[in-house]
Structure formats: C-alpha cells, structure tokens
Amino acid sequence: MKRIDLRSDTVTLPSPSMREAIAQAAVGDDVYGEDPTVNELEAQVAQRLGTPAAIFVCSGTQSNLLALLSHCERGDEYIVGQQAHTYKYEGGGAAVLGSIQPQPLEFSPDGTLDLDRVAEAIKPDDPHFARTRLLCLENTQAGRPLPLAYLAQAREFCERHGLGLHLDGARLCNAAVAQGVPEAEIAKHFHSISLCLSKGLGAPVGSVLCASTEFIGRARRWRKMLGGGMRQAGLLAAAGLFALRNNRDRLAEDHANALALAQELSGIPGLSVDAESPRTNMVFATVDPTLAAPLRAHLAARGMRVGSGSNLRLVTHLDVNPEDVLAFAACVREFLHASVAAGARRLPA
Ligand SMILES: *Cc1c(COP(=O)(O)O)cnc(C)c1O
C-alpha cells in the first residue's frame, strides 16, 4: 500500500539519487569554515537570492531566530502576523532568548500586513515603550504568494520609518515559481530572508539565512551560541544543493496537483473547499465536524494521512503524484457520499 501523506510538505523522504549525492559529498569542519559543500550551498543560495552572504542552519526556526537576534536587541520589538510562524509556531524564541517583544497584527486576507495598521503599531520614542525595530513578513503565507507590488511598498515603508524588513521565506521558491519570477525579484525588497530546504524542495534538513556580509557575521555568532555550529555538515548541504538543482522547478507540478485536488474535492457532500484554493501547493477545506474523525480513520486505514481537526490543510509535495491525488479524492468522495446518505436516512421525517 502506497502511503499518501498530505499533512505537510515536510514529510518528503530523500530519494535514492539524493542519498547518492549525500554519500559523495566532500566535507570538512564547517565551524572552521572548511566544509566545501556547505560553502558551495551558501554561495549558491546567496547568488540565487541576490544577497552578498548566506548561512546554512539546521531549521527554519533557527534561521528566523538568528535573523531576529541579528536585527534586534534586548527591549526591541518586531511587528509580525498574528498567525505567523515566527510568532506563533517557534516557541516564543525571540522573546525567550532575545528579550525581543513581538507586536502581532492580524494578516489581511491576502497574507499581507496592512501598512497603515503597521504604522499605528510603531511605538513613539519614549521610555514607556519597546523600540520598534523590525517588520517581519511571511511568503508564502498559508500558501499565498505576497503581491510583488506590496513588497516594494513594504520596503519603502520600512525605509521611511527606520525599520528592518525580514522575510520568513520558508516557501519562497513556491512563491517564485507561482509568480514566474526568480527568487531574487522577491528577495531584493528585504534586509534578510530565510529559505527552507526541507519543505517542498525535499531536503531532509536545513534552511539558509541570506543577508549582508556584516549581518550574516552576526548571525554566525548567534548560531554558535545556540549550539547550531555543525561540523561535517556538507552531508546535509549536499542534499540542499541536490534539492535546488532538481526539485525547484518541479514545484510547478505540486501546484498543478493542488489544483487537480481542489477540483476533485469540490462538490463532495459534507466537504467545502475554500474558494481561494489551491494556493500554490495547498488546498484548504472544511469537513462537517461530526465526520472529521471518522473520515480521518477511513483514510488512515488506506494509508492516507491528513492533519487533525475539521479545517483541513492538504499539502502536495514531491512524494505525491497525480494518481495519488485521484486516489485520495476518490477515497474522500466514497466515504462522504456514504456517510452523508446514511445521515440523511436517519433524519426525522
Ligand atoms: C516550516 C516553516 C518554518 C520553519 O520550520 P522548521 O520546522 O523549523 O524548519 C518557518 N516558517 C514557515 C512559514 C514554515 O512553514
């Protein structure tokens, strides 16, 4: 039975050819700056994003944390989305480890932060307040690529208000592929950008933080302090290089599979597909709350996995092909048709 796991694009497994690339990697001690494969990965990602420097780290969480620590000092503040990964899903690291105060704001429906509302949230220079230093955006945000015109406005806004601008670009490559632009066209608006290799790109481990040489120097010090200095990390970097070379352009296939999935799931009783879906490689759907747990069990018995709750986020990736999409949708359809029909028969006359 083939497993079909739509919980996230983090679940991809390294292919035999990626494992071969890992086995062949030239390595050295990266804390001494001597791992040629790490150095090559950092140079390639910096070039792709158009920044002077980059640093390879173990996770997106660490990458965002290094960025926040490098932008802000104790008692500073960053403005961020209420549902943003850097605020909600990273253990409060900036506050815990950096004494950096978050100022969360609701995302607009398109995944941006309204700049008028950001302006209102900037604190006056007064001892009562934390010092507002940074605006943090996310791209893609819940699968939505941020409009390019907005990014230019956000940068101009930050220049005007003396703020830094960081991008949590965990899925930056999905945004670039969806918008048909090189990553640098998105990255050029930011002072720092974090990119994940272990999401849709399919590497087992790793993220890269890109910025100026001086900024990356600071981030390197923080990385060591946080225990993130890895030695023969070229084994991991080799997988990242392989992922960028072989799996970046094919993200378009994930987006096409998400479109097919949204179409296959629409019109099934007991399930409603969000009108905006698909958003890049994600489909959002709501299932009747009484049917959510039984549907999950029905799928699990057939080797198919989705996240918990009745609001489903279904994510396509490297290990999901068009046949898997059809098989998954057929399984959902079969179960919900039968359940909704049985429920209707039980309704009082
Ligand atoms: C996955 C993700 C990260 C980083 O997650 P790690 O699991 O720490 O690599 C950061 N931001 C967003 C939006 C993500 O989806």
Structural summary, described in words:
- A seven-stranded mixed beta sheet has the order 2-8-7-6-5-3-4, with helices on both faces.
- The protein has helices at 16-24, 36-49, 60-71, 85-88, 93-98, 115-121, 148-161, 172-179, 183-187, 213-225, 234-247, 251-265, 289-300, 322-346; strands spanning 4-5, 53-57, 76-81, 101-105, 131-138, 164-169, 192-196, 207-211, 271-273, 282-287, 304-305, 311-315.
- By secondary structure, the chain is of the alpha/beta class.
- The chain has two domains: 16-246, Aspartate Aminotransferase, domain 2 (3-Layer(aba) Sandwich), CATH 3.40.640; 250-346, Aspartate Aminotransferase, domain 1, CATH 3.90.1150.
- A hairpin with an 8-residue loop joins strand 9 (271-273) and strand 10.
- Helix 3 crosses helix 10 (213-225) and helix 13 crosses helix 14.
Structural class, from secondary structure content?
Answer: alpha/beta
* Molecules bound to protein: pyridoxal-5'-phosphate
Distance between the termini: 42 Å
CATH class of the largest domain: Alpha Beta
CATH architecture of the largest domain: 3-Layer(aba) Sandwich
- What is the average per-residue confidence, as pLDDT, rounded to a whole number? 97
Percentage of helical residues?
Answer: 40-55%
Strand content: 15-25%
Count of alpha/pi helices? 14
What count of domains describes the coordinates?
2
CA-based shape: globular
User: What is the CA-atom radius of gyration, in angstroms?
Assistant: 22 Å
Q: Please name the fourth-level CATH homologous superfamily of the largest domain.
A: Type I PLP-dependent aspartate aminotransferase-like (Major domain)
Number of strands: 12
Q: Remind me, CATH topology of the largest domain?
A: Aspartate Aminotransferase, domain 2
Characterize the largest beta sheet: strand count, sense, and whether it forms a barrel. Answer: 7 strands, mixed
The ordered H/E elements are: EHHEHEHHEHEHEHHEEHHHEEHEEH
The side-by-side strand order for the widest beta sheet comes to 2-8-7-6-5-3-4
